[in-house]
Amino acid sequence: MTPFVFECAGEALQALPAGALYWPARRLLAVADLHLEKGSSYAAIARKLLPRHDTRQTLTGLARLIAALRPATVICLGDSFHDRAAVERLPEVERRTIEILTARARFVWIAGNHDPTPPPVGWGEVAEEIADGPLVFRHEARFGPADGEVSGHFHPVAALTVQGRGMRRRCFLTDGRRLILPAFGAYAGGLNALDPAIAQLFPDDYDALVLGRDAVRRLSWRQLRPDAVMTS
């Protein structure tokens, strides 16, 4: 796992291939849009047949990062749970995993549009946003100047054409002043990084930090495509 080092609001940050952000100076790990129990939500409400292993897969990835980095603080940037009843649907094994992880670091759960209900007592703090030095962590980016803003919500993906084949990859987006994280959740999906909803937040140039299997590659928005066919 090779982190990509970059600057935002003057701070040296690391974009991890797993789709998480690490701030070494603060020993802070941030992840966005876990959407825990999305699979069970679709099975129960939308009647879509999805394997119900997304929560375990997402928490396993988070546990690996916490074990490797030993962060002092973990910030979950909203939409951590897919809906208000998600916590109630958590299997006992996954519930116990969350209890173990939240005991290893200070957890801050930022409120998102999917999960306005606070997590159970003992799982950490809940906040609308949290400021630390020059950075402010919130769920959704605000239109206009926002130096040091770190957010999620949009699930950005970069559409690329490589050797004549179209593909989509999750990505971070930054112009050096604000940063949008990719979704960390296994079933989170994504919005094209060139979509007007995202592009309007970056009036000047911005880059995509595109996730690969073991590394992160920085590309200008000009190197991306409006759409591409997903490949395996």
Structure characterization notes:
The chain has 232 residues and is of the alpha/beta class. It has one domain: Purple Acid Phosphatase, chain A, domain 2, CATH 3.60.21. The strands form 2 sheets. Strands 8, 9, 10, 11, 12, 13, 14, 15 and 16 form a 9-stranded mixed β-sheet that branches. The mean pLDDT is 89.
Rg from Cα:
17 Å
CA distance, first residue to last residue: 21 Å
Proportion in helices:
10-25%
Structural class assignment = alpha/beta
Shape: globular
- Which sheet architecture does the biggest sheet show? 9 strands, mixed
In short:
This protein has 232 residues and is of the alpha/beta class.
Q: How are the SSEs placed, and which strands pair?
A:
Layout: E1 4-8, E2 11-15, E3 21-23, E4 28-31, H1 38-46, H2 54-69, E5 73-76, H3 86-89, H4 92-104, E6 106-110, E7 125-127, E8 129-132, E9 135-138, E10 149-151, E11 156-162, E12 165-174, E13 179-180, E14 191-192, H5 196-199, E15 207-211, E16 216-220
Parallel strand pairs: 4-5, 5-6, 6-7, 9-10, 10-13, 11-14
Antiparallel strand pairs: 1-2, 2-3, 3-4, 8-9, 11-12, 12-13, 12-15, 15-16
Helix pairs in contact: 2-4
